[in-house]
Amino acid sequence: MRRPEVRPAGPAVSQAVELRRRYVEELRREGVTHREDVLRAFDAVPREEFVRDGFTTGDGRLVAPTDADFLDLVYRDAPLVTKLVDGVPVSSSSQPSLMAAMIEALDLRPGSRVLEIGVGTGYNAALMSAVGARVTSVDIQPDVVDRAVAALARIGLAGAVDVRLGDGYLGVPDAGPYDRVVVTVGLTGVSPHWLAQLVPDGCVLAPVAHAGSHPVLRVWRSRTGAVEGRAVLRAGFMSAAGPLAARHPWSHVAPRGGPLAPTTLRHPPVWRPPLDVFGYHDLWFAVGAWDRRAGFGAGPAGGWGGPGGCVLLDGAGTSWAGILADGSVQAAGPSAGGYAADALALRDRWVDEGRPRIDEWCVPLVATVDPETPILVPSGWQRRR
């Protein structure tokens, strides 16, 4: 393994080093990883070198390296969007706490062979390399690949990470087999090519669509040949294009653009204080496991108390019911009463079953019927006992 190079001291470098140390301490306090080698990788790899062309923040601001707060924004626990197409984010540096949690979930060891689907900025590959992994990373966007290669060269990892231009769906068979495959873009299913390029006890870690988000699943082939999956953690990712984003018979309701219709029916709160973000996503995941109408709904004009959340949506987009973090239910549309009753029943079922966490769910994955580009998709979630 080649460590990132140490740069000469200077005001900007000193500021970056201090900010990076604070950033690592924040990751440690949040408990997103308990592995010191992962934290050391975040301390060693300069994130700013991977966003030299600037980035867009969550509020839409374009930030350049010449801006006074550039380094402050780089070293926050937030995603940095590095490429937009028609105003839609298509490449980014993911949220650092999510990167750390996923790298820990990979259970990497020195010499572990990793195939990364989606190069992003190259920062995630550099972190895995700093942990000791031998990383091959593939992306279909030539400009994304070129920028990542340049960034890796700037920190002394030229050649240490094998960056390829190609279709991630196909994997990179000539550099395999791999101990792990990690995917950094939201999918609706897993490519069978990735499983074919794994060692017998290897696994895929991938964000797979579920009820309007992309929770991370660990996927492997059992000794019987069946493909199995287990939910690992909550997450949100930009969606892939092509066969990896195909809808299938077990898909949840199609996402809706724009806000929901104004609320016309309300049921009161039942939890004081409300669920925290982790508990709410546990509830949301369970609702999606039990009902394919579950998805994400943006806050209605009638007031949601936030940007949106877990809703049941009808296919026509005329009726909906949402469960809020305080357990209250809002609904609208011609079938508001029925949808609200279903949402209440799902909320209460989650409580009655002991409030299962995301990581308590497992699922078989089955192949879709597309003969040219099949994907393996979740079908029939069950709680692990």
TrEMBL record:
<dbReference type="GO" id="GO:0008168">
    <property type="term" value="F:methyltransferase activity"/>
</dbReference>
<keyword id="KW-0808">Transferase</keyword>
<dbReference type="Pfam" id="PF01135">
    <property type="entry name" value="PCMT"/>
</dbReference>
<dbReference type="GO" id="GO:0032259">
    <property type="term" value="P:methylation"/>
</dbReference>
<protein>
    <recommendedName>
        <fullName>Protein-L-isoaspartate O-methyltransferase</fullName>
        <ecNumber>2.1.1.77</ecNumber>
    </recommendedName>
</protein>
<comment type="similarity">
    <text>Belongs to the methyltransferase superfamily. L-isoaspartyl/D-aspartyl protein methyltransferase family.</text>
</comment>
<dbReference type="InterPro" id="IPR029063">
    <property type="entry name" value="SAM-dependent_MTases_sf"/>
</dbReference>
<dbReference type="InterPro" id="IPR000682">
    <property type="entry name" value="PCMT"/>
</dbReference>
<keyword id="KW-0489">Methyltransferase</keyword>
<keyword id="KW-0963">Cytoplasm</keyword>
<keyword id="KW-0949">S-adenosyl-L-methionine</keyword>
